Each structure stands twice: as structure tokens, then as C-alpha cells.
Structure to design on (156 residues):
């Protein structure tokens, strides 16, 4: 009787252990699947930002946002890009034509206005440069661009 009970217990324990191992395996598989499906989605989400960047910004600021020494400032790790949203939106709406210091380098070349882009395009490209190109800042919505545009700082 005793040995039978002991045997029975250990079988239950073994079954339990197997059950938990199976659960762990399922959990790992699920998270791997979730992760690999989640990845392309998060980059695919901002295809608009990527295409606007490639069409309108890349020629000067370069594909990696590194800029061109003494010609075009970088977009990586600059306070203009990762800092105040309103100032950043205004740079795109109005262009920029004043001496600026970016990462200890002085730049003074004019950048044209991109106010012809839609609020959605501007939001997408600014979200792209704030969250990619080595930056980890917050995104910008089309509504935020609309508000800044309405405040009337736009000169065409
Ligand atoms: C013709 C080249 C050119 C193009 C195209 C261009 N820029 Fe610029 N950008 C510049 C220059 C030059 C400056 C510095 C302006 C100054 O010194 O007043 C600048 C400055 C900036 C700045 C502020 C400084 C910094 O590096 O943080 C941001 C942000 C910026 N550009 C984003 C963009 C975005 C986004 C686009 C595309 C929509 C774009 N630029 C397209 C040349 C360009």
C-alpha cells in the first residue's frame, strides 16, 4: 500500500512537471511568434515617414541622419530633433536660415520650407526622425502639426 501510494504521488508530480514544461514551451513559442509578428508591424507602421524622409530629407541629411560635416547638420542626437515638438514642427513649416550649433559644430546653410507637405506627411517624417536614426524620442501627430500651422508662423 505504502509503495503504491508513493508511486502514485511521484507520477502525479512527474505529470505536473511535464505539464509545466509544456506550458513554458508554449509560452516561449507564443512570445517568439508575437515578437516576430510585432517587429515588422512597428516599422511598417511608419512607411509614410520613411518615404517622405527618402524623398525630401535624405539628400541633405543622409540616409542614417549623419548629415554632412560643415554643410548639413546631423539629425541624430540633436536637441532640435528630440526636443521641443513645436520648434521642430516650425523648422519644417518655415525652413531654417540662421547660424545654429548642432553637436558642437556650427552650421549656416539655408534649409527651405516644407510647408507644402500635408500635416500627416510632416507628422510621419518627424516621428520617423525622432524615433529612428538612433533617436528615442516621442512621436508627433498630424493634429499637433495642424495646431502649429494654424498658429500662423508659416511664411510661404
Ligand atoms: C537642401 C538640403 C536640406 C534638405 C533637403 C533638408 N534639410 Fe534639414 N537642414 C538643412 C540645413 C543646411 C540645416 C541647417 C540650417 C541652418 O543652419 O539654419 C538643416 C536643419 C535641420 C534641422 C535642425 C538642425 C538639426 O540638425 O537638428 C532639422 C530638424 C532638419 N533640418 C530636418 C529636416 C527634415 C525632416 C527634412 C525633410 C523634410 C529636411 N531637414 C530637409 C538642409 C536640408
Amino acid at each position: 500500500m505504502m509503495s503504491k501510494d508513493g508511486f502514485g504521488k511521484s507520477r502525479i508530480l512527474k505529470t505536473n512537471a511535464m505539464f509545466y514544461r509544456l506550458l513554458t514551451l508554449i509560452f516561449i513559442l507564443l512570445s517568439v511568434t508575437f515578437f516576430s509578428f510585432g517587429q515588422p508591424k512597428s516599422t511598417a507602421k511608419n512607411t509614410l515617414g520613411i518615404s517622405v524622409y527618402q524623398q525630401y530629407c535624405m539628400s541633405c541629411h543622409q540616409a542614417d541622419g549623419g548629415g554632412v560635416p560643415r554643410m548639413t547638420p546631423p539629425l541624430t542626437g540633436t536637441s532640435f530633433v528630440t526636443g521641443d515638438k513645436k520648434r521642430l514642427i516650425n523648422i519644417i513649416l518655415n525652413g531654417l536660415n540662421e547660424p545654429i550649433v548642432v553637436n558642437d559644430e556650427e552650421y549656416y546653410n539655408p534649409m527651405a520650407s516644407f510647408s507644402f507637405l500635408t500635416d500627416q506627411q510632416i507628422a510621419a517624417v518627424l516621428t520617423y526622425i525622432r524615433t529612428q536614426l538612433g533617436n528615442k524620442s516621442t512621436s508627433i501627430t498630424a493634429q499637433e502639426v495642424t495646431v502649429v500651422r494654424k498658429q500662423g508662423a508659416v511664411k510661404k
